Amino acid sequence: MAEIPRGRGRGAVILEALRKAQQQQQLAEAPAVEPREESVAPKPVVPKGRASLLRQKLSELKQTAPVGEPSTLQTPAEIATITKGVEETVINEPCLFRGESGTTVNASCNYIKLRTERDGGVFEYHVLFKPDMDAKSIRTRFVSTHLGKIKLFDGGSTLYLPIKLPDTRTEYICNHPQDNSEVTMIITFVKLKQLSECIHLFNVLLKKIMHALLLTRIGRNYYDPKHTHLVPQHKLEVLPGYAVAVDEFEGGAMICLDTQHRVMRTENVMDFLTNVKLTCKQQGNFVSVARQALLGTTILTKYNNKTYQIDEIQWDETPQSSFETRDKRKISYVEYYKKQYNIDIKNLSQPLLLNKKTKKTAQSEEVDQFISLVPELCYMTGLTDEMRSDFKVMKDVAMYTRVTPNQRLRALRAFLDNVENTPEAKEILSNWGLHIENATVDLLARVLAPETILFGGGVKGTTNNADWNSLICKNKVLGPVDLIRWYLFFTSRDEKFASTFAATMTRLGDVMGMRIAQPKMEKLADDRTDTYANMIQKVANTEAQLLVFICPSIREDRYSVIKRLCCADLPIPTQVILSRTLANPSKVRGITHKIGLQINCKLGGTLWALRFPVKNWMICGIDVYHSPGVKQSVCAFVSSLNDDITRWYSTVVFQDKELGDQHKTAFVKALERYKQLNGVFPSNVVIFRDGVGDGQLKYCKNYEVAQFQQCLSDYSISNVKLTMIVVQKRINTRLFLNKGAEFDNPAPGTVTDSKITRRNWYDFFLVAQHVRQGTVTPTHYVVVHDDANLKPDHVQKLTYKLCHLYYNWPGTIRVPAPCQYAHKCAYLVGQYIKREPSAKLADALYYL
Fold this sequence. Notes:
Layout: H1 10-29, H2 50-64, H3 76-92, E1 103-109, E2 111-116, E3 122-130, H4 136-147, E4 152-153, E5 158-161, E6 169-175, E7 182-193, H5 199-212, E8 216-218, E9 221-223, E10 229-231, E11 236-249, E12 252-268, H6 269-279, H7 283-294, E13 298-301, E14 306-309, E15 312-314, E16 322-324, E17 330-332, H8 333-341, E18 352-360, E19 366-373, E20 378-381, H9 385-388, H10 391-401, H11 405-421, H12 423-431, E21 434-436, E22 442-447, E23 452-454, E24 460-462, H13 469-474, E25 486-491, H14 495-512, E26 520-524, H15 529-539, E27 546-551, H16 556-569, E28 574-578, H17 588-602, E29 617-625, E30 633-640, E31 648-655, H18 663-678, E32 684-690, H19 697-714, E33 721-728, E34 735-738, E35 743-744, E36 750-752, E37 762-767, E38 779-786, H20 792-802, H21 817-833
Parallel strand pairs: 25-26, 25-27, 27-28, 29-32, 32-33
Antiparallel strand pairs: 1-22, 1-34, 2-12, 2-21, 3-5, 3-7, 4-5, 6-7, 8-9, 9-11, 10-11, 11-12, 12-20, 13-14, 13-20, 15-18, 16-17, 18-19, 22-36, 23-24, 29-30, 30-31, 33-38, 34-35, 36-37, 37-38
Helix pairs in contact: 1-2, 1-3, 5-12, 6-7, 14-17, 15-16, 16-21, 18-19
Region (Disordered): 24-45
Subcellular location: Cytoplasm
Protein name: Argonaute 3
């Protein structure tokens, strides 16, 4: 297979530009009568960077210039012009990262092309006043008077117009509003801006279009409050809306348009506080419960359709309290809402909610702004944890939020028709010479071949729907670990469940290929947290392999104590099971089998594997967990330990932000552990970095990659090839399989790496998982660094293979397994353990 060429480097482009300049100079100096024979070109020098290349080539050109005549490239202005032209050439060339493996299929996506009409676009002009005018308001008035309202002018020297003026240089005579003196305004044409240079402007225009369509902005997206779907049995309503953004891609400037839904509660915060007060017997308990439930949540004020975050509850303030307005007047909240919104506040004794926003002033100083809100005017947004765990609630909400590919595309076409049929929205586009195509972008995608799954006993299995649940239930695991010494803790009410679980586990041992002995049964006197802690300390020195707890209910304090003691203080693998999970006799066997597989992983075993045609590679995954209200974040670093990519080493570090500087510590531990087990350092390191947005890609490339390179340099490991891939799963891109008149979700293994990929990055989209309901969301992968020069096919196949190795699910998942392991590890440590786990558990997946 021929290797796909990548984007041309700056050095190569500069070299070519300078060669052309030299050839033109030689042709100009040639005699007119007889052409001169071409001299043999010197051997090209390997570029060492733009500056050194320019110096070297300029020196060569000066030497070849005729005696007595200056070189055609000797002035700084000319050098700057050529360099600028070269840079523009480099920027305009898209980065190609296209593979060839797999079966080609027709696909579509939720991208819409944005085009400029003939003779239209964004024209840049320079504005000059004689005499000079310092007041921005007067400068803006002059521009508006002579050039109309359709413009973009910030009061400085740059003006953007949707049309080109007849003359390159135009003068207007204006009269100063104060002394009526004559002022000359000179408008000079600079250039026609490319679409890639107008992305911000297009996004601003899109916001105006959304307002013209009477859509309301809530958060980042726009919703239609007039067409809500009520779910009255759960006091909920679902708002339909859109997520829209313009960006430049490999196929040009496009609009990414996706349908969105926002779940709102029909009860306001005052109703919620009343219900909490009724359930709390003590007043002090009510205050703490209310603060715990409300702080950090997002609420919506329907009188202005804005969202706020609750940062505090002001118990000593009421709607009758007064505040100071901008004009230094005192007014009560009751009077304010009556005057501004004609709203009568009913409950005059309710506390107020406080929202804090940090804004930057004109001097770039951060200033805290506080806003007090009335609870009865604030409506709760989103679902609580209790609602999410209620199957009936989620099923009823999913009727409106789970949209099939056909329904999603119909909604997108309805939006485009709405724009076309709304004169105000159409005028906004036509004023700037823009046109939105009335169809989504079609593209070619590829479906990678299904992978072969390897089980114990040499059994192999292949599945087309990326699900091997039936195979794992029938076959033995690949790397079994015998479970001989283990404890089972339970309360008296769950004694029956405990006996059934222990008997089922021992029977399923042969099925899984494990030898499982009878556990030591430990009945707890009560369900208090101290009781669990005391029992853990009691058996800590008995060389137990595993501790299993059957708990009667969900309690975070109990779970935190168990995990903190058994993961940090007294390192023992643990398994916590809710008694209601074992309550259904018909499902006990299947549930126990899944728990047994999870236990095997926590003991250091493996369940299945794939064939990897690589040797001495270390695959890593990074993810960061941010705990609400806690300054430090938890970064988990998970790395492979063997060539089969089935054993993992996990490290946790604490840092102050998403992009931290603590990766060196974790990377060093991973390298040392790899060499300890394999005798050598890895030849290739591939890192999948989760949690990095588009605005952080350059920072990640320049800052985090440098940390890993510094580690390799400190260890004097010069032959290790480093590849870093950013994983983005929170995206609005959707892919659809085009079946002609109908659309469906693409099959697992579908890859697209053209048209909708980033223009200046090596990236691709991959659908790894199988979705039975709704629309599948692909995962976006961006190769930010690659010393190994891996081919696109190799990166895409490796990524898809890794999506098969998450041992908590017998099927493919959205992201590579090391990223999901890092996510689980960071969440457990950040949410419950809150300290660094013991190194004795680092070789096992104790966080599953």
